């Protein structure tokens, strides 16, 4: 008989269990939904051509419009919306406008929504 101990395989060194770092999780939680919205054309970038929304949004400022919120709820007073002027009397057709919803939607006021 041999005097050698039985052969035991070497095991890899164990690493302590680490939690994901917040500096990775938070940016991913923001960027992943933004990427999905952008790829689905629900996230668009606009440059405001005039001062009609000043001081909130000034001329030549760039804004990002996301088009998913109003799938779940109706526009409310204070919301900033982007809309096309097609079919609105007194406005040139084919333009996009940025405006704030200023009145509650009652007494016959309606907003009709279509994908831009």
Can you walk through the features of this model?
The protein is α+β, with helices and mostly antiparallel strands. The protein has a domain at 42-116. 19% of the residues lie in helices and 17% in strands. The protein is built from two helices and four strands. It has helices spanning 22-39, 69-72, and strands spanning 43-47, 62-66, 80-84, 96-100. Strands 1-2 form a two-stranded antiparallel sheet. It is elongated and about 100 Å long.
Please sum up the structure shown.
The protein is 19% helix and 17% strand.
List the helices and strands and how they pair.
Elements (H helix, E strand, L loop, with lengths): L21 H18 L3 E5 L14 E5 L2 H4 L7 E5 L11 E5 L16
Antiparallel strand pairs: 1-2, 3-4
Strand line-up in the sheet with most strands: 1-2
Strand content: 15-25%
- The total count of strands amounts to 4
Helicity range: 10-25%
User: Low-confidence parts lasting 5 or more residues at pLDDT below 50?
Assistant: none
The averaged pLDDT comes out at 78
- Rg: 27 Å
Order of helices and strands: HEEHEE
SS-derived structural category: alpha+beta
Largest sheet geometry: 2 strands, antiparallel
Cα-to-Cα separation, first versus last residue:
85 Å
Quickly count the helices: 2
Q: Could you say which overall geometry the principal axes of the C-alpha atoms support?
A: elongated
């Amino acid at each position: 008989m041999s005097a050698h101990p039985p052969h035991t395989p070497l095991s890899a060194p164990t690493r302590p269990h680490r939690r994901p770092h917040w500096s990775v999780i938070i940016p991913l939680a923001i960027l992943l939904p933004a990427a999905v919205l952008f790829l689905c054309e629900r996230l668009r970038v606009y440059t405001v051509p005039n001062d009609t929304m000043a001081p909130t949004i000034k001329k030549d400022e760039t804004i990002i419009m996301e088009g998913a919120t109003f799938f779940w709820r109706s526009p409310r007073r204070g919301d900033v919306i982007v809309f096309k002027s097609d079919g609105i009397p007194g406005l040139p057709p084919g333009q996009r406008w940025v405006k704030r919803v200023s009145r509650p939607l009652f007494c016959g006021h309606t907003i009709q929504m279509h994908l831009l």
